[in-house]
Amino acid sequence: MLGSPQQRQLSQSQTRRLNKVTLRSRTPRSLPATYGQDSVPFLYAQPSAKLVPGITQPKIENSTGVEFDLWPKGLRNLAVRLGTAASATSK
Length: 91
Known about the structure:
The chain is α+β, with helices and mostly antiparallel strands. The protein has two domains: 9-37, no CATH class; 41-91, no CATH class. The chain contains four helices and two strands, in the order H-H-H-E-E-H. The protein has helices at residues 5-8, 12-26, 31-35, 76-90, and strands at residues 42-47, 63-68. It has a two-stranded parallel sheet. The longest helix has 15 residues, at 12-26. The protein is extended and about 55 Å long.
């Protein structure tokens, strides 16, 4: 039995979720493929082991990272450090 017409219609939230799932399934699985490039550098900042005991360096291909020993109050300093590190590795 199919039920009433109201039961067969999807709610707006169900339709949005279905659209998101469909969109995700069509999304390329890699960042370089997304932008049509051979490689896209991955930049990251992470706390040091002094700040977060037990944390280790990630193993990410084509990545550049910076560590910080104090929790940052803003992102400007980290952005400058990442930009400097990225330009140094691209030369």
